[in-house]
Amino acid sequence: MLRENNAGVTLAKGFKASGIKAGIKKSGKDDLAIIYSEVPATVAGVFTQNLVAAAPVWVSKAVAQNGVGQAIVANAGCANACTGEIGFANAKKMAELTAKELNVNAEEVFVASTGVIGVNLPMDKVESGIKKAATALDDNGSIAAGKAIMTTDTYPKACSFTFEIGGKKVNIGGIAKGSGMIHPNMATMLCFVTTDVAISHDLLQQALAKVVTTSFNMVSVDGDTSTNDMVLVMANGMAENVMITTEDADYDAFLAALNTVCTELAKLVARDGEGATKFLEVNVKGAESFEDAKKIAMSIAKSPLVKTACFGQDPNWGRIICAAGYAGAKMVPEKTVVSLGDIVVYDQGLGAEFDEDALRDVMAEHDITINLDLHLGEENATVWTCDFSYEYVKINGEYHT
Amino acid sequence: MLRENNAGVTLAKGFKASGIKAGIKKSGKDDLAIIYSEVPATVAGVFTQNLVAAAPVWVSKAVAQNGVGQAIVANAGCANACTGEIGFANAKKMAELTAKELNVNAEEVFVASTGVIGVNLPMDKVESGIKKAATALDDNGSIAAGKAIMTTDTYPKACSFTFEIGGKKVNIGGIAKGSGMIHPNMATMLCFVTTDVAISHDLLQQALAKVVTTSFNMVSVDGDTSTNDMVLVMANGMAENVMITTEDADYDAFLAALNTVCTELAKLVARDGEGATKFLEVNVKGAESFEDAKKIAMSIAKSPLVKTACFGQDPNWGRIICAAGYAGAKMVPEKTVVSLGDIVVYDQGLGAEFDEDALRDVMAEHDITINLDLHLGEENATVWTCDFSYEYVKINGEYHT
Questions:
Q1: Which one of A52, A84, A304 has the shortest CB-CB distance to B222?
Q2: What residues does substrate bind to (chains A, B) (predicted)?
């Protein structure tokens, strides 16, 4: 189903994007992106729940609430967080400058920032950067935009595909950045999704809120929830399907498509976590509730002991069952079965007998699946994360001021 | 006030201890300890809340509940966790073997284990080890006992001192081990406290429960709560003070003494966390409730980004205020003041101006204090932790099977 991944946010009709060098990043890499819809789009957003939310979060929340948007302007290299009134004025100014260049309303421009906390945006560079980015807008600009929002990401993250609603071809795609401060309730995680579907604002917001619960909110890199996270969706209706206004089959088809894009991007974020050498999927099934399943999966995914064990390719099931036991969710050790890949390692309260060579092969893979069956109920949850390596310590332990 | 730290669990009258090599640890280091009171003591205990609790936890809980104990037998090198019925039988057998050697009741012997999960105790070695340890009991045996319970600890942890109750000299002291899987609600954390105070069982248990809340439960090394944690207290009454049976001034004096010992040992556990190069104290004051203060302090102490920043001597206040913001507790960014040592780094929602050289000196110290004043109320909390270093990844990422 997935195709044309490189098309990202420019697969859907009427969307252009660009990414350029404004000079905000010290490294001199691209650091400012614009995504633009030819026509005003229905929009929705979900935002960090961190009480220390950055200025652009407040600006973008207002756009999402209004429900109409035509552009996203995003910068890397400076989070514009903990910057007080100046920061808020700068975020609004970014929207105004972008609106002027694109000849749209400033109230219809989302603003997103990622990077260092506590530093003011260099507005002269931002201003000339926005002009440059507006000129550079391109039907194939998604990759450039994806690169310009990277921080410690090692590659740009994109995904897009086409599906059908009522006989009409509908396109959807997105770009994301992640890497550090990645944890549920959003992270230094930016994700922008564009689609040409026609849908009402209420249902778009509802679909996004639902999908985030099982995609981005199921990713943990380091347990840190950032000040700047947001997932934005713009739906400009140019697919010309009959407007989706109720929870019918068309809505379900769109929900599935949005879920595919968000899940794919969320997994890419976990896969490219800071210093990652392994991609870990933690599946918990047989829980009494989704909340219990999620608590246990997240407890395992966050455990530094489990994550360092995976880095060392150590099938240390003791650390896994231990993390399950302190998750604060209902589980009965004697009923729980733990597998690494397909190999059962813990059963009936005891370590299981297993083929050591086969298990060694499982742990040597880049992608490792940790499975728990609680045998208590019908609910499941899956969390994605990565291992904890020397490189994570190096990336975050270096003094950058 | 603290003195004779080396006396540890053998400062109080009537207590002897020993630590010997039973052959359980692969390294060949000492791995079995006994602590013995000449007369039956009033006892209390607090235990891991991990649902995957090890066999010795169940055995020792029963002793604590009975309220009378005369000995503790503890081994390192094997946690006797996830070992099912065999593990439970082995834990009981340890109590019986110890009781026989010491000529006491098996129901009055605490059992503690720490080490690898999912492996059965080598009972032949345990049996001969218990005989050896019983013979080796000594008035100055605390250091030997402290060494024999170490796992990845780099030094034995002990503390003891003398105070007065009603004109009588009362002694109290303890030993502890920590290092990995260290997080509130106990950790692979064992702590044994002995005192010659005379106190009722109810008040001893009450005092211990209260003290643990602000000492051991305020330590985090890696956020992992172990299967085997316990803090045990034995009070044998040989100080001949008037038995403490109500919450009077004598009780307060004992509570303060117990708090001093437990806090001192808890800080030693944080200081010697796996791979630690820094000791971090996080003080949160001005909270509306202790729970809020604790949530914020713990959120900062657990943040891998804060911990790696401290490893890198980076005064990254953005990560600190960010971790405070996602703690799930009430805080208002604009009212919060963050200091590193005495230097204010964040105030009124913004980074503060500070002397960079002075701040560099603060971060270069081994002990770093992170202070937050929320300016919302009167409640405080202090959490102790350590930094996250390459060495933590090395210790836990090596494949040991």
A1: A304
A2: 151, 177, 188, 274, 396, 401
